[in-house]
Design goal:
PH-domain like; three-stranded antiparallel β-sheet
């Protein structure tokens, strides 16, 4: 399939998502150093979980073609979800303060699809994606003769 856009979450976004686990691991290591050496085991466990979660976020791919938005994810077990563009009803962009600093954004797509009413594209680079996506949705609706009735 010929993709117009291929996006993935930023590594910085993935790092921010796992910071609580890293801090928890540091706390366990500090307690292990001063009091109970056995706490090294949960510290290593937290780091392994953080690493897996980091990789899990980095392996997400968002592919946008003229007809379909495909979200593929998974490290060991791959999963691909497709959303027909003509089913997208509404768009929403959220940018917390730290995401604004690093020029990242979260995009929420509301659709009429029964299996995925809401689709999130998280931690993607800030761009003119919404304008392009809006045009692609309108073109897909024209091609499929979709008329919205309120």
């Amino acid at each position: 399939m010929n993709y117009l856009y291929s996006l993935r979450p930023s590594p910085l976004y993935a790092l921010v998502c796992v910071i609580p686990l890293i801090l928890l691991s540091c706390g366990f290591l500090a307690l292990a150093y001063y009091k109970w050496p056995v706490l090294c085991i949960p510290a290593v466990g937290c780091l392994l979980i953080a690493w897996y979660h980091y990789l899990q976020i980095l392996f997400i791919r968002y592919h946008i073609s003229a007809e379909v938005l495909q979200i593929s994810s998974g490290i060991f077990f791959k999963q691909a979800d497709n959303l027909e563009l003509f089913r997208i009803k509404d768009y929403s962009i959220t940018q917390p303060f730290w995401m604004q600093l690093f020029r990242l954004m979260n995009v929420q797509l509301i659709s009429t699809d029964q299996t995925s009413r809401s689709v999130s594209l998280r931690g993607i680079p800030n761009s003119d994606l919404m304008d392009s996506l809006r045009e692609l949705v309108q073109q897909a609706r024209l091609r499929n003769h979709i008329v919205e009735i309120s």
